[in-house]
Amino acid sequence: MKVEAFDASLHTLLDEMAKAMYFEEGIGLAAPQVGEFKRIFIVDIGEAEGNIPQLKEFINPVLSNGEGKIKFEEGCLSVPGLSELVDRKAKIQVHYQDRYGRPQRLQAEDLLAVAIQHENDHLEGILFIDRLSPLKRRLARKKAEKLVTL
Ligand code: QAP
Ligand code: CO
């Protein structure tokens, strides 16, 4: 669902998402992961890169101009304990709106580009394990099932 109202309830949702992400020590979180089926995700790769935290909020994002390839070992708060190498674009462009509805554009590469692609997938109901080859996906599913029942 596209976000149309840039009001206090949106800001509360964004703040709650940030709290949840930092609490779980994640670097990205999408609204569908917290049961809100809206086109929203947040990313903070600051600490992962040894810098100060830098929260980025993406509303109604549209990705384009994917370029190059990168393989990155991805994990996900929705698939805890599991990580696998995933193929992504090395560079992307993203058009989005900020929490006030203002249009923004960002050119991203490396970890930030990977994080944006990973989070954008959540808006389509796609998990990183869905991006693996069929064989690796089956193995990953089995591993994930074991982790859940433990
Ligand atoms: C998505 O992932 C991502 O298994 C964000 O036990 C992944 O925040 C972006 C997490 C890779 C860029 C590169 C995973 C926390 C957090 C776990 C996360 C876990 C605890 C994953
Ligand atoms: Co995820």
Characteristics:
binds cobalt (II) ion; alpha+beta; about 150 residues; binds 2-phenylethyl (2E)-3-(3,4-dihydroxyphenyl)prop-2-enoate
Report on the architecture of this protein.
By secondary structure, this protein is an alpha+beta fold. It has helices at residues 8-23, 110-123, 134-149, and strands spanning 28-30, 40-43, 56-67, 70-74, 84-88, 91-97, 103-109. Strand 6 and strand 7 form a beta hairpin. The model has no long low-confidence stretch (mean pLDDT 94). 2-phenylethyl (2E)-3-(3,4-dihydroxyphenyl)prop-2-enoate is lined by residues 24-28, 72, 74-77, 80-82, 114-115, 118.
Computed CA radius of gyration, to the nearest angstrom: 15 Å
Residue-averaged pLDDT: 94
* Largest β sheet strand count, sense and barrel closure: 5 strands, antiparallel
Strand content: 25-35%
Question: What is the first-to-last residue Cα distance?
Answer: 35 Å
* Bound ligand species: 2-phenylethyl (2E)-3-(3,4-dihydroxyphenyl)prop-2-enoate, cobalt (II) ion
